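quick one if you have a minute, typing this from the bus. theres a chain ive been looking at and ive put its sequence and its fold in token form underneath. please have a look and point out which stretches look like helix strand or loop to you. anything you notice is useful, everything is just below.

***
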Amino acid sequence: MTLPGDFLWGVSTSAFQIEGAFTAAGRQPSVWDAFPAFGGQDASVACDHYHRYREDVALMRALGVNAYRFSVSWPRVLAGDLGFYDRLVDELLDAGIAPVATLYHWDTPVSVEEGGGWLDRATAHRFAEYAAVVARRLADRVALWIPVNEPAMVTLLGYATGQHAPGKALLFDALPAAHHLNLAHGLAVGALRAAGARAVGTANNHTPAWPASPEDAGAAAAYSDLHNWLFADPLLAGRYPDWLADRLPVRDGDLATTAAPLDFYGVNYYNPTRLRAPSPGNPLPFELVEITEHPRTGFGWPVVPSGLTEVVASLRNRFVDMPPVYVTESGCSYEHSPADTARIEYLDAHVTAALEAGVRGYFVWSLLDNFEWDSGYSQRFGLVHVDYETQARTPRASFHWYRDRIGR
């Protein structure tokens, strides 16, 4: 199919997962530094991207991508180190690769969390101040800006269930975090535009919510409200799902802030979710049901490329003035194998689904194997294999497949 001339073929990473270079002088601690990961592993070195970014940009140039989505470390900026991102952005531009900057990819500074974190409204304003600092330095060179990555995961896993840092299991009492993340997004949009940012959007995680039976439609709708629309509605329509609105600490003017116009909308897609009505005693209005009829990634996630098309269609059906859509993350974890067949098949099917949905760009998660949050180094998402002992980078067969796909 014919793609627009400005279509973005990219890869994505995040600061905490690849940078390493954690010293007290160079980066303040984040909530993830002390959070337990698989086998007691940590990200103090990770992929050592902080020191090896030139090698990694050279890999991207060889891959043929024209965009790179990275995140800026809020803890590193608080320690006064913006110079790394200056150097990274310049290196990308020299390679002909458009920088796509995410300001927050889950690495809340410990000092911010100790002050209340995302449960505290003041954090949204602190985030906007941080956004302004970064934008004043980089806005003249960054092509696209994403203030907050996947606020649904921060809220649901970090504050509601405790699976992710900061490890709070508050269930519905976590909902203020959702609103404050959305407010932080809106305030940051204003700060970025004031500093001259050219294009500002978002990157929300979306999942189709499938009822396990016709009788479970209400459970699926409730889950979709919490995972999808709690974060899309305030940005794209200035509202919240009705049954959640009274649970959120919304003040006058907040929804006008969250609904600041966007230049694009980023979709992070990995898999659908199946739901049924809750069992007696379950405080939630749904229960998750395993999806068994599809193959799975190494992480155990069902592989359903059509779910990506379903997500994009649901967004366009729900919002009249939907901005251009980019797939800002899409990828899979599998055990390393020379043929890399499963990863290639996954990417081939998901790229096809994305193009059929008429998106404006596709970013593979991820360029490199990395530190995968609570799973440590047990999961490998990279187009490039990383030997964590030697830091040697070896492009996988999927790297070469993606290079050829881009070059068609």
Notes: The mean pLDDT is 97. The first strand starts at residue 8 and ends at 12.
